[in-house]
Description:
The protein is mostly helical. The protein contains 17 helices and no strands. The protein is globular.
Amino acid sequence: xxxxxxxxxxxxxxxxxxxxxxxxxxxxxxxxxxxxxxxxxxxxxxxxxxxxxxxxxxxxxxxxxxxxxxxxxxxxxxxxxxxxxxxxxxxxxxxxxxxxxxxxxxxxxxxxxxxxxxxxxxxxxxxxxxxxxxxxxxxxxxxxxxxxxxxxxxxxxxxxxxxxxxxxxxxxxxxxxxxxxxxxxxxxxxxxxxxxxxxxxxxxxxxxxxxxxxxxxxxxxxxxxxxxxxxxxxxxxxxxxxxxxxxxxxxxxxxxxxxxxxxxxxxxxxxxxxxxxxxxxxxxxxxxxxxxxxxxxxxxxxxxxxx
Length: 307
């Protein structure tokens, strides 16, 4: 279990870092012309929102997920107020991109709101995409995990269905850890916990698209960050490539748009299913924060064992 839990973490982080070079490029012809098929990490020469970043670093999603991992490791677990302080400290000196959800949440904090009320009205998938560290820490405590996932998402994102979407994917990873194949896990979680609109429609759309070329499918759903597009697109990636994490991530990149959030969540599910051997060694080798992540996971493991 621990190997697959670590693979879940590394697949999420490598999914984000792989996206960095072409993140938020919506014109896929530009990606094709400049790079051809993107199979390795790149510096963001074309990704204007991330200029100044280097190959193997993270988008602002990955940076926030690393902040969450550090907060959990430092405290021996998740505490919303501590994470809020750590998150705000990250952005005190952050030189990377600040999306609207971040700007709005920081304004709300500055206005005196606390961590349970400061979230923006955003329904971007980037909020749930941070959650892999929580799954690692609380994979053996499902009720605590779901509460933490919902709290960390709503700290910055409170738009329609976004907190439930985080809950959905956390439960999916847990089902996969229990040995349920990814597509079946999606269907089981839907039936047991989210058998209502719009989740029934989003999951059905994603599953129905698995015979469609990924670029065409994601173009059809929409390449953007917002949940009505990003949720079924992520379902597509998980269900179309349940046994091929590398192809899932590469096809995700080549579809353009908000590939980072999609890649982090699809990476979590497929990493939990396939384990570390299915994450290309060249990706983990190029990951700038790899040693830091491994040290933090060791710290979390030690704190859990001491309980």
